[in-house]
Amino acid sequence: MLKGVIFDHDGTLVDSERKHYGLWVDILAEFGIDFPEEVYKTHLAGVPTQFNARYLVDTYNLPLSADELFAKREIATNATLGKEACPLIPGAKQLVQWVHGRQLAMAIATGAATREVEPTLSQHGFAQYFPIVASRDHVDNAKPAPDVYQYALDKLGLQAKQCIAIEDSPTGLKSAIACGIDCIVVQNDYSRGHDFSGALAVFDRMDEAQNHLAKMLDV
Fold first, then answer.
1. Do the strands 4-7 and 163-167 form a parallel or antiparallel pair, or are they unpaired?
2. 201-203 and 105-109 as β-strands: parallel, antiparallel, unpaired?
3. Which of 49, 73, 96, 177 has its CA 20 to 30 A from that of 55?
4. How far is it, in rounded angstroms, from Cα 57 to Cα 168?
């Protein structure tokens, strides 16, 4: 029986991938690199920042280490994503409120830092729905490892088979599956067309995911 829903954050609840891409554009411009959006969509969207940094250093032969690039990116992230909430994905608030109204347990499991989620909780009024936020700050291994989902399950006091995850990226999908949690994907402009093998269902809109959950609960 379904007892809990665990939401990813970036790209699932909030439309943040454009800002993530823009931050990399600004940083790489300092090295004289024009960073195409298609490269970001194909290789880096929905992937933890540490892996982004490693990929960019290797691909563009940057004159600094992956750790140094990651640190540089963290400064930019703190100045933007850590302060102002990104716009909500269309239908995200309605789905969150619907899940809450069905008295299901709720949590966020994200590859981002907790500080990147805090503006969403405070500025969009989501704190009342998500008492539990599992972030990269709480685990040793980021997505696609299962750690962040296992942390969320532990805090919820539920088993994997009692929950469902909602994700937007292959990286997040792999993380949920590795934890034994069934996963619904709601793809966006940055993840559409990627490989979502293993997903319980793949949708383009949040209301489609809500309809799917409603059918699950009515069975």
1. parallel
2. unpaired
3. 177
4. 25
